[in-house]
Amino acid sequence: MTxxxxxxxxxxxxxxxxxxxxxxxAAIKSIDLEDIQxxxxxxxxxxxxxxxxxxxTTTSWWVKIRNRLYITLLQQAVxxxxxxxxxxxx
Length: 90
What we know:
The structure is a single chain. By secondary structure, the protein is mainly alpha-helical. It folds into 2 domains: 1-30; 32-90. The radius of gyration is 24 Å and the shape is rod-shaped. Helices cover 88% and strands 0% of the residues. The longest helix is centred in the last third of the chain and has 29 residues, at 61-89.
């Protein structure tokens, strides 16, 4: 069986797409999600440190409670996002 030019291009494209897909899947599966969680938590310090500092320096109970709530919500959001990402990747 002889393939025409379009059939050859399609076969090559299908092969390249299949190869790229398998490489992408392997790359995604090799990601250490624990490392990602640690990186995200480290970045979270950029958000939570100023809130913690304000908690330590203010006399307002409202600000202390609000900031503690913000910190807790941010931490829970990170855990939920990482768990959701783990579920989707695995």
